[in-house]
Specification:
Helices cover about 35% and strands about 20% of the residues. The protein has six helices and nine strands. It is elongated.
Length: about 230
C-alpha cells in the first residue's frame, strides 16, 4: 500500500512539473511573438485634427525602431529596379557608386557634400496609417531639393497586391524604393517594429548611426517649390 501511495505522489509531482514547464514555454513563445509582430502607429497627418498628434506620432516612431544614437546593422539588398544597396550607401559620398537615381551605382537619390545624412522611410502595405501618410510622404519627396539620400522601404505585401503596387508606383519616380518582407534585411537592420517609421541617419566613422527619428525628418521643400 505504501508503494502505491508513493507511486501516485510521484506521478502527481511529475504531472505538476510538466504543467509548469508547459505554461512557462507558452508564455515565452507569446512574448517572442509579440516582439516580432509589427504594430501600426500614426495618424492621418495633414488634417487639422491630426496636426496636434504630431508629437504622439514621433513618440510612437521612437518606440517602433532604433532610437537616436543607435548603430544601424549591416545589410545588403536590392532596390525595385535591381540596383544593389548596402548600409554604407545611405550616406552621400560614403559608398562607391552612390549617385543620383537613374545613373550608375546604387541608384540612391543623393547629393550634397560627403557625409550628408540620409532619410529612410518604412511603410507597410497592410498598414492603414501608412496609406494615410503616403500622400504626405510623396509630396515631401517630390518637392524636396536633392540634398541627401532618400530611401523608402515597403515591407510586406505580396506580388500583384494592389496596396503594395500603389506604394511602389507612387514612390518609385520620387526616390529609391526597396521592397522586402516584413522581416527583411533593411527592416531588421533598423530594428523596425512599427509602421510607419521614419529616421535620418549619419556616418560615424565606418558605422551608420540613427541621427533622428520621427515624421519631422522628411525633407523640407525648397523655397521655390513652396
Amino acid at each position: 500500500m505504501a508503494y502505491l501511495i508513493a507511486a501516485v505522489v510521484l506521478v502527481g509531482a511529475l504531472c505538476l512539473l510538466d504543467l509548469l514547464l508547459t505554461v512557462g514555454l507558452i508564455r515565452r513563445l507569446r512574448a517572442q511573438q509579440a516582439a516580432r509582430t509589427p504594430s501600426y502607429a500614426g495618424g492621418f497627418a495633414g488634417t487639422g485634427m491630426d496636426r496636434g498628434m504630431d508629437q504622439g506620432m514621433d513618440q510612437a516612431m521612437d518606440e517602433g525602431m532604433l532610437p537616436p544614437g543607435a548603430l544601424v546593422g549591416a545589410f545588403e539588398t536590392r532596390t525595385v529596379d535591381g540596383r544593389p544597396l548596402r548600409n554604407r550607401d545611405l550616406v552621400a559620398g560614403g559608398g562607391a557608386g552612390a549617385g543620383a537615381r537613374g545613373g550608375t551605382g546604387t541608384g540612391v537619390r543623393a547629393g550634397g557634400g560627403a557625409g550628408a545624412g540620409a532619410v529612410v522611410v518604412f511603410l507597410s502595405p497592410g498598414c492603414p496609417p501608412c496609406h494615410a501618410q503616403l500622400p504626405r510622404v510623396a509630396a515631401a519627396l517630390g518637392a524636396a531639393p536633392v540634398n541627401g539620400a532618400v530611401v523608402a522601404v515597403v515591407a510586406g505585401g505580396a506580388d500583384g497586391d494592389a496596396e503594395t503596387e500603389q506604394m511602389v508606383t507612387e514612390l518609385g519616380p520620387l526616390t529609391t524604393v526597396v521592397r522586402e518582407s516584413i522581416a527583411g534585411p533593411v527592416t531588421e537592420a533598423f530594428g523596425v517594429r512599427a509602421f510607419p517609421s521614419m529616421c535620418r541617419v549619419r556616418a560615424a566613422g565606418d558605422e551608420l548611426v540613427v541621427d533622428a527619428v520621427g515624421e519631422h525628418v522628411l525633407p523640407a521643400p525648397s523655397p521655390a517649390t513652396r
